[in-house]
Design a protein that fits this description.
Blueprint: H1 2-12, H2 16-41, H3 43-46, H4 53-60, H5 64-82, H6 86-105, H7 110-126, H8 136-160, H9 172-183, H10 196-241, E1 246-249, H11 253-264, E2 269-273, E3 286-289, H12 295-300, E4 308-311, H13 316-329, E5 335-339, H14 346-351, E6 356-358, H15 360-373, H16 379-386
Parallel strand pairs: 1-2, 1-4, 2-3, 4-5, 5-6
Helix pairs in contact: 2-5, 2-7, 5-6, 5-8, 6-7, 6-8, 8-9, 8-10
């Protein structure tokens, strides 16, 4: 079982979410590498609080600051992509669009960076369905990225315009203090802008501070409230009642038909559907939303007390992953059943050792041929074909 678990986890690393996370992280590294190299060269001076920050910013290049912020944001968002977070996907796409715009106006390696960025953006759009998660982690990453970017903008902008304040700001602690006071809209009045440029800059900090803080709080609190409310209203109540039932994984036509047949016969059925998916199940159906290859989702669906767990997804590989997860958390008396959409995958599906493997493709084709040839069809033959027994 441990070997199968390791194999499953290794295969999960090859899924689009992980691959795109690596590509986005590399895009971010590409952006910050020149800035980091310059900063490392001047590291001894940076540690000196009395450093001439205006001179340092001029050496690094004030125009390089947006690239650094974008690169750092992409690297942080890559973690969210690995977690399949929809928020990280949307934020990464926005950052990549901005990177593409900057690359167009860049003279050094702009075309190469633009091409790479466009390819990664297209892949994110193609595999958007892979990112259907919503978690506190994703919200925290968004809050960290947006707040950090705003802080860099405020601190370095304040240092760059330091001479345009009531008391010239030339050191990092004072710039940090003024940024915090402005972003939080406290406004003690001990430091204030005296020129039009500095006033507009301070106004931008205040507006963006309010926006970032409000958005960050909603991004973190939203999943907490939504997830807990859903569990309280539905999940917790249903979880108590989930026993001696059938768990159907997927929204395929076969899954819908099996669900209808079981409900018609009075059986209790719990469905596991991908988050944000469109399906034709009744509104009063017992549905758990999430990845059916996740052990936590299967536990929530009552896998330990289920009679059967049926992997009826359209993708054979996803059915295999779901069976592996189910065998980890299922009860001793729980049986696992895997649908094989393509009969050539029967040997591969059997390797994950579900209790039953069935192939509608093999069943349908064999019955049609035997009917055309006038051969005998009995219950034993149908059972043999239905469960994919090629022997």
């Amino acid at each position: 079982m441990k070997v199968e678990t390791i194999k499953r986890k290794l295969l999960e690393l090859c899924k689009p979410a992980w691959i795109l996370a690596i590509l986005v992280a590399f895009n971010g590294y590409w952006l910050i590498k020149p800035v980091v190299a310059r900063m490392l060269e001047m590291l001894p001076g940076v540690l000196n609080w009395s450093l001439d920050w205006l001179n340092l910013i001029d050496k690094i290049g004030i125009t390089e600051l947006p690239r650094f912020i974008l690169g750092a944001g992409l690297i942080i968002m890559s973690v969210g992509l690995a977690l399949k977070a929809r928020l990280a996907w949307a934020f990464s796409l926005i950052l990549l669009i901005v990177v593409a715009v900057i690359s167009i106006s860049s003279s050094s390696s702009g075309l190469i960076l633009l091409s790479y960025t466009m390819v990664v953006s297209m892949l994110l759009l193609v595999y958007w369905k892979s990112f259907d998660g919503s978690s506190i982690t994703a919200g925290s990453l968004f809050a960290l990225t947006s707040t950090g970017a705003l802080m860099l903008y405020a601190v370095f902008g304040t240092l760059y315009l330091g001479s345009e304040f009531s008391t010239p700001i030339t050191d990092l602690p004072t710039a940090f203090y003024f940024s915090i006071v402005s972003m939080s809209t406290v406004g003690y009045g001990d430091l204030y802008p005296v020129t039009s440029t500095a006033r507009l800059f301070t106004a931008s900090i205040i507006v963006m501070g309010i926006t970032v803080f409000a958005t960050s709080i909603s991004a973190i609190i939203g999943p907490v409230i939504g997830g807990n409310l859903k569990k309280i209203v539905k999940g917790r109540i249903s979880n108590v009642m989930r026993k001696n039932h059938f768990i159907i994984l997927g929204i395929s036509p076969t899954a819908h038909s099996v669900y209808a047949g079981l409900v018609e016969r009075g059986d209790a059925v719990t469905l596991v559907c991908p988050t944000g998916s469109e399906h034709e199940y009744p509104v009063d159906a017992d549905i758990v939303y999430g990845d059916s290859s996740s052990a936590d989702i299967l536990i929530e669906a009552g896998a330990k007390k289920a009679n059967y767990i049926l992997a009826l997804r359209n993708d054979d590989a996803e059915n295999a992953f779901s069976i592996l997860a189910a065998k980890e958390v299922a009860g001793e008396d729980t049986k696992t059943i895997a649908l094989v959409n393509s009969s050539k995958h029967i040997p591969q599906i059997k390797r994950v050792k579900p209790d039953v493997v069935f192939s509608l493709q093999l069943l349908g084709s064999e019955l049609l041929v035997r009917t055309l040839k006038g051969e005998t069809i009995d219950n034993k033959l149908i059972t043999k074909l239905f469960f994919g027994d090629a022997e």
